[in-house]
Amino acid sequence: MAKKRIHHYFIPLEQNNFRPHLLRPHFLSFFGLAVIFAKFFITAALFISYPSPTAFAEITSRQIIELANQSRQEAGLPPLSENFILDRAAMQKAQDMLNRDYFNHEDPDGNTPWYWLKDNGYLYSYAGENLAMNFVKSESVHQAWMNSESHRANILNPNYQEIGIGVLEGELQGKKTTVLVQFFGTTFAQKQGVDYSFASSLEQGTPLSTELTEGTAQPQFKGKEVVVTLKSEPEHSLLSKFAAYTKEFYWVILALLSLLLLINILVKIKVQHKSVIVQTILVLVLIITMLSIQTHFLENISQTLKII
């Protein structure tokens, strides 16, 4: 009995008038409305949370600073103060990565992160940088950094007194993405008596910071990229997961209807209902349209968060 019922839903038979139940108008209407509703729901949710790239950058920057200071407070360290020169340097670094298509501490010309600080007149005695891309929620980025020894060492470095954040969305390495630059620093005005000559003991796997000491060597940066797959996200991160699930839903319905249409045509090639074929093709076109149209700038962000 169950087998016959499945056949009625999937295969054109004389008993169902050669119209599989899943390709009948009421089921096709259901599939079409479900696809439209899913698109509307995720678009509305994203716009309510982040109405524009500017709002996304402002919200993320504020939250990243709050999360960093919360972790420092838990470790018994003083909070970091936002420095607008560091903010500007971070934004310039983020824009440069998007413009020149790289994700690294060093730019294609070999300039280290400290180039952006010096270029903005930030005379530091201590400085550090954390980078992230492919994210929607700031909590996910901060947790990934805290799970990385070198990035956590930056956030909890007692020598740092200031912080600056740059957040941009754009295209990197051929894909839509979000980029975050986090600069830390302490100026000479805040730490008196430090020689302006500096050196660095930065090596791969060591804390991402540059301490100014006696000497003349330029800092050498050998940051190691860490790829973090977002298996679970705290708090409101269900938003990004739902966006990914919506796409998977589209692909499942697209594959199911394509298979049903193919079966319908091939099993009884001499008995065809043109209306069934036309209506199914229209729903398939609708699904493909929903997949191809981006209604919000965060909709197509990869679910693989990268930090370096």
UniProtKB/TrEMBL annotation:
CDD domains: CAP_bacterial (cd05379)
Listed Pfam families: CAP
Keywords assigned by UniProt, alphabetized: Membrane, Transmembrane, Transmembrane helix
Parts of the chain that traverse the membrane: 27-50, 249-267, 276-297
Keyword Isomerase: no
Domain SCP as annotated: residue spans: 66-179
Protein's name according to its UniProt entry: SCP domain-containing protein
Organism field: Candidatus Kerfeldbacteria bacterium CG08_land_8_20_14_0_20_40_16
